[in-house]
Amino acid sequence: MANINVVGDFHKSGLTKVEIEKAVKAVFDTLDKAKKINIAFVDAREIQKQNLKYRKIDKPTDVLSFDYEDEGDILLHIDLIDEFKETSEKLSDAILKTLIHGSLHLFGYDHENKKDYDIMKKTEDKVWEEISK
What's the mean per-residue pLDDT of the chain? Predict the structure, then answer.
């Protein structure tokens, strides 16, 4: 059974914990898979530290995902998500889309080449369509 834990300062996202959980559960439903997921909203310093440690990239990023087979961690940095979002897009929507993206990484999805990108993007769009009804 899936368990979703949300920590950190997600309140400035404009989202409730229930809305965040709904996005992850939609990924579970779409893939017909589930696992325990910890979602942490972190600041620039923390995500940069983790990005350097695990990806050897010394700068902040919007999302990092860590898969441990039966569970996974997702780190989200709201300020960068806000910076990267489309101008007319609501911050809450951009955060949910980023969360969907990060969740898919926990189930083996990637975007290292065009074929994998297309598969991941199609799945992201399917999940987004489901939760934005």
Answer: 94
Q: Convert the pLDDT of each residue in 114-126 to its tens digit.
A: 999 999 999 999 9
How far is the C-alpha of 70 from the C-alpha of 77, rounded, in Å? 24
Number of domains composing the chain: 1
What is the Cα 17 distance to its own chain's centre?
14
Length of the chain measured in residues: 133
Residue 42 belongs to domain with CATH number: 3.40.390.30
Angstrom distance (rounded) from CA 28 to CA 35:
8
Question: What local confidence, expressed as pLDDT, does residue 73 receive?
Answer: 97
Q: How far apart are CA 52 and CA 16, in angstroms?
A: 30
What residue type is assigned to position 65 of the chain? S
Range of the domain at 116: 4-131
pTM above 0.90, yes or no: yes
